[in-house]
C-alpha cells in the first residue's frame, strides 16, 4: 500500500490500497428459545452434543454452492486464553455452528463481476459459518480477501464492499433458511425444552427475506505500518465507518501495534508488525471479529425480544376477552416464566466477562454506547412489565365477571329457595288459614320481594 503526503491524505481520502481482508456477518432468526437453565445445569442431558449428532445425520447439500454442511461446537479455549468473551458460563465450548465445506477449493467463488479493478472470480467467500444461539437468533459470517495488482482507493473499496454485501445475501439466504429449519425441526424431534406461545413468530418461507440476513456488519482489516505514520490513521476512513458524528473517529485500542474503530455497520482494524511479544498485544484479529459478532448478535436478540413482547401485548389485548379463565391463568404463569427467562438473557448480556482485559472492556462499552444496547435492555424489561400488568388486569377483570355471574346464579338460587320455603309454609298452614289461590300468590310474591330487598340492603351496607 502506498500513502500520499499526510496533508493530501486527510484532505481527499485518496489512500492507495492493494489488500484488504473483509469480515462480513449478519444475523438471522431461529425463533427458538431454549431453556437456559436446562442447558447450563443439566450436564447429563448434554443438549449440544445431541443436537450436533442429529443435525449431522441430516443430509444437507446445497448444489448452488457446491458445499456440504458440517455441524460442530465452537472451541473457545484459545479465545478464553486471550481473555475474550466467547463461551457460555462454565463451559469450555460455546455456540453450535454449521460450517459450509466447499466440495472444491478453499472457498465459494463470487462469479459476478464486482469491480473493474478485480478480475473475474478473484473474490471468494471463505470460512462460512452459521452460529446458532440458544435465544432465538444466530449469526452468518464469512471472510473475503480483496487483493489487486493495481491500487484501489477508498471509494473503490466501498463500491467493491457494497457489491459483496448484496451478493452475501444472494449466496447464503437460502442455505441459512434451510439450516434454520433443520435446527428447529431437530429441537422439536428431540423434545428439547423450549418456549412456545401462540403469538410467537415462526420461520416460514414467506418471511425468509426478513428473517435471514436482513442486514450486515463489515469489518475491514488492513495490515500496513505506513498508516501508523498518521496522527489518526482512521480519519481517512471516516465516510466508510458511518460514524454517528464527524469527530467520532476514535481509536479504541490501547496497544501501539493496532488501531480499532467502530461504526454502526462498518468497523476498521489497522495492524502492523511488532517485535514486542507480550501475550496481550498478540490478540488475533479473528478474536476482535468474534467479539463484534457476538455483541451484534446480542443486539439482534434484544431487538427480537422487543418485537416478540410487542406481539404478546397485541395478542392479549386483542384476544383477552375470548380467553377462558383456565387458559388465562396458564398464560399468566408462562409469561411470568418467560419474563424470568428474558431477565436471564439480559443479565448474561450485562455480565459479559472480559476479566482483566482492559481493551476488550473498552470495546464492549463503546459498542453498547453506539448501538444503544443498554437502552434496548431497559426497553425490553419495561415492555415485559407492561405485558404482565395487562395479563393481571385481564385476570382480575375476568375474575370479576366470573364473580358477577356467580352472584347472579346465587341470587337466583336464593330466590328459588325462598320461594320453595314460603310455598312449604303456605301448604303447612293451609288447613288453619284456608288461603285462596290469589292469597298464596300474593304471599309468595311479597316473600320474594322481601328477600330481594334484604339482599340489596345487605350489599349496600357492606359497600
In short:
Helices cover 50% and strands 18% of the residues.
Give a written overview of the molecule.
Helix 8 packs antiparallel against helix 10 (373-433). This protein has helices at residues 6-12, 36-41, 47-56, 77-81, 154-189, 208-211, 285-319, 325-350, 358-371, 373-433, 437-462, and strands at residues 17-33, 61-62, 67-75, 93-102, 108-109, 124-132, 135-152, 217-223, 258-262, 266-271. The protein is 50% helix and 18% strand. It has 3 domains: 6-282, no CATH class; 289-397; 401-462. Strand 6 and strand 7 form a beta hairpin. Mean pLDDT is 79; it is low at 1-12 and 81-90. The protein is elongated and about 125 Å long. Strands 1, 2, 3, 4, 5, 6, 7, 8, 9 and 10 form a 10-stranded mixed sheet that branches. By secondary structure, it is an alpha+beta fold. The chain is built from 11 helices and 10 strands. The chain crosses the membrane at residues 406-426, 438-459. Keywords: Membrane, Transmembrane, Transmembrane helix.
User: Could you tell me how far the N terminus lies from the C terminus, measured between alpha carbons in angstroms?
Assistant: 86 Å
Question: Low-confidence stretches at least 5 residues in length (pLDDT < 50)?
Answer: 1-12, 81-90
SSE string, helix = H, strand = E? HEHHEEHEEEEHHEEEHHHHH
Classify the secondary structure makeup into a structural class. alpha+beta
- Mean pLDDT, all residues: 79
Helical proportion, percent range: 40-55%
Summarize the biggest pleated sheet. Answer: 10 strands, mixed
Q: Hey, roughly how much beta strand do the residues contain?
A: 15-25%
Cα Rg: 33 Å
Tally of helical runs? 11
Number of strands: 10
Q: Number of domains in the coordinates?
A: 3
Report the principal-axis shape.
elongated
